[in-house]
Amino acid sequence: MEIRSLTRTEAERRGALLKVERYDVDIDLTGLADGPEVRCVSTVAFSCREPGAETFVDCAAEVRSATLNGRPVTPTGDGRIALPALAGHNVLRVESVQADTTTGQGVHRAIDPADGEVYVWMSFEPDEGRFVWACFDQPDLKAPHAFTVTAPPAWTVTSNSGDPRVEELESARRWAFPDTPPLSTYNTVVNAGPFHEIRREADGHDLGIYARRSLAPILDRDADELFTLTRQGLAFFGEVFAMPFPQRKYDQVFVPEFGGAMENYGCVTWSDAFLRRATPTPAESELLAKVLLHEMAHMWFGNIVTMRWWDDLWLNEAFAEFACHWAAERATRYTDAWASHLAGGKLKAYLSDQGPVSHPIHQPIHDVAQAASIFDNITYPKGASVLQQLMTYVGEERFRAGMTAYFARHAWGSATLQDLIDALSKASGRDLDTWRTAWLATAGTDRFSLERDGDTVTLVAADTPRPQVLAVGAYSRNNDTNGRNNDANGEVLERRALVRVEVTQTRTPVTGLPTGADLEVLLINDEDLTFATTRPDPATRDAFFRSAAQLPTAISRGVATATVWDMLTTGEATATEAGRCITAVLTAETSDAVIEPCLTLAANIAELWAPEGERAGLTAAVAEACLRLAADPGRRQVALRGLARTATKPDDLAWLREQAGDDVDLLWRTLVREAELGGDVSSESALLLERDPDPDAWVRALTVRAALPDPAAKAEVWQKLAVDRAVPVNSVGQVAAAFWRPDQDALLTPYTRHYLDSIPHLHRGGMIPAMVFAGQLFPPRAIDPTYIEEAQKASDEAAPVVRNTLLERSDTVKRMLHSRGTPTDRVSGGPGDGVSEWVSRA
């Protein structure tokens, strides 16, 4: 029988009926040293407000025995155990075994290929705790958890609460952890293995970081940065929320074969892919900082105060995403964090919000399976941008005061969106009900343009806009370049005015802007204060594209880039126009936080959006920009990586090899490019694999094979990637990108059919693998619009997380296919005019 997903109605009934007093969970990991089994005994004490009523407990593991108040109870076969005739106070005891620890949910056993050591991690969001032990797996039934873990004697065990009591047994060790505070089941964790551990004291906290032993040198290299960021983040959030983190111990555990990072209270679990094998680039270092701060923000927003039901999942994740950028800019060295947000996640959000899976930020969630499908670009980057707008709308000091009151009132309980809105309304003195309805209950993106009539400037919304505050910047030319390398004339633009406007209607006068013949650009949403797309007026469209690179700040250039990108995705700009504009921005960019995402965007346009006849020219332009950037020592690493993706000239490839020297990472990237272009690199790849100290270097060798225009290599890679799922989830995108290369359509066509055949099974392994495989394996090549319709139809019966991921990715590929069409197939025009029928229908 299929495992049932908890519905909202069921959760509300169970939440009204029960109060969970505590969990005592005894976990035996000794069977994982050389086998697959985790054995658990879950003892749950809970009270019932209606004695005699019945309910159920969640347990999708194999149940060996179960008793309620000493009487046997029986699993129903759908991941639940019925609990009849409840007493006022109850004790449930369930013995369970989970043997699917390779591809199953909730718990994972990974083997380090470097030394054969075994590592175990658990991750329970949204409702995967039930796959390991019996629990009431819904967010509002919070309770203290006491974990006792028996593990092999050489292993270290980590969990939410610090300072376990460790008992030596005959052939094992038992770790007894103190009670946690009241936590939702999805916020708990146990990790184990022969970890390399580093600890530091900071501001009264005991900080720990862990990784597998084969990555000890990398963890040692990054330790100072990790501890510094952790100290800075704990201090910032403790101050702005007027609530210091209440536990002394704060651990972060980097594990293999994990996707992303998870905010378990006091013990964050990370993919150890964040421990970069090569020296991190500035953008990679900033990403590490933002993820660290994102998970830390969840300690308050998610763990200490938890959403009552998954309809507020957006708030949980959007708040953490907003807070990580806020903290990065205010408390760390990553002062361009919002600029990189605009250059990366926000561009994805603009595209998603205009596609087939756009949805209101806050929406009814029927069951947990639906909740798993909205860990998406609307929930994360759009949600973060909307909260940034909310802080702008009410003012930062009032925003902080509202958050302080919210945490003080709801600590260790659960809350709803209305609770937060009420706290912010009271603190700000503004009625936020209209704001809430417009921003959170309505899907889609506002679009603004400007009308000029003499000295009068009017901000015009394409439709009824949401209430918001945004800024318009006025720029004119300044011949003082201050050493910047801009256009051929060495000209840059200087901001002469910045005017904030509160929007309440379709047409809003903008007063205070300068006039004059030298006024070059009026930039809507300057400073990136809101979530809205913009358009230059038709008369200045071409000048806008030419001037984007000459704007003076990373944010202003980013806002212009966002406009150009949005015009490309809606068919109002060609790939050549957008590619050349963004490549020029790349050449002029001065912010380390933005150069790498800008380079990725320019290369993506050349590779994925350009018509076949224009792809080579755009790719060459990006390669030339990389060669120029490589002359700057501070940009060299990023530039050489970009060149390894875009080089086509034999001289450039040979120069890359010279520059690489002993840089193993750059050599792998160069081999991938040479393989794609038909070079015989097999023996060189084998030699590099032997000398690469990375325990996961075999994935780099597989990536080289994926790029080869060779049928045997494609078959081997597809088997390992899509069928066997042997590639770690965090590396699937890297291998898939090398697999789906340009000019290989004849080789790739069979695999487009294989993807369709795999759709019913893509949900296997839980939410993160489902999202990764559904999105990253979707073919961007060797297909046509008919194929996309077929894929979308095939997704109708798939799990919600697969269906939404596939629909979103297929919409993006539709737009790519339209952009790749012949010039007579593409059109230019105003908003909404430039998308072909088969794109706009989505």
UniProtKB/TrEMBL annotation:
InterPro entries referenced in this protein's UniProt entry, alphabetically: Aminopeptidase_N-like_N, Aminopeptidase_N-like_N_sf, ERAP1-like_C_dom, Pept_M1_aminopeptidase, Peptidase_M1, Peptidase_M1_aminopeptidases, Peptidase_M1_dom, Peptidase_M4/M1_CTD_sf
Residue stretches making up the Peptidase M1 membrane alanine aminopeptidase domain: 230-437
GO molecular function: alanyl aminopeptidase activity
Catalytic activity: Release of an N-terminal amino acid, Xaa-|-Yaa- from a peptide, amide or arylamide. Xaa is preferably Ala, but may be most amino acids including Pro (slow action). When a terminal hydrophobic residue is followed by a prolyl residue, the two may be released as an intact Xaa-Pro dipeptide
Keyword terms, alphabetized: Aminopeptidase, Hydrolase, Metal-binding, Metalloprotease, Protease, Zinc
Enzyme Commission identifier(s): 3.4.11.2
Location of the ERAP1-like C-terminal domain: 522-815
Signal peptide span: none
SUPFAM superfamilies xref list: Leukotriene A4 hydrolase N-terminal domain, Metalloproteases ('zincins'), catalytic domain
Segments for region (Disordered): 817-842
Swiss-Prot/TrEMBL cofactor(s): Zn(2+)
Family: Belongs to the peptidase M1 family.
NCBIfam families: pepN_strep_liv (TIGR02412)
Protein name: Aminopeptidase N
Organism of origin: Streptomyces phaeochromogenes
Gene responsible for this protein: pepN
